[in-house]
Here is the input.
Amino acid sequence: MGMELLAAAHLDAFYDADTGTRAARHQLEQLVLFLPHAAAIDAFQHWVYTRPDEASDRAARDAAWLAQHRRLCPGVDWSGLEADRAALWQRRLHVFELPFYYIEYAIAGLGAVRLHRRALAEPAAAVADLRRALALGARARLPDLFAAAGLYFGTDRNTVRRAAAACRELLDL
Here is the structure.
């Protein structure tokens, strides 16, 4: 995700300026839309695995999913599509095959926003630090990989708020 945002600054090498700008903006917009959905998936999985008796009931699962999705993904009119919304979580293979893995994409997205902002301010240092972090591979813990890339690792409310503010700022450019 970080590489996708870094590459956005160089799309003019392949496309006209307007198309490159729209593609870069679209990439960031998709990340903004993805983050609350990923949080809803994660919260739903926590509910499923901490309440197995309730989770065995289809209506309870739907209600639990809808509660998380309404809380974390407000602002979309699902009128006439209520059944689709209730089943939305089922489209994520991760829920069935890789429990609690989906949140890693959200963590990567938060890091991508930080990397993108850093690269706008100091591109050479951001890329050099990213390369250093990537060279560590699976030998390092995630917080250490973020630190090696010159990025703060966190998933707390304030960190997410700062990432959201950064996205707003980037999309307002």
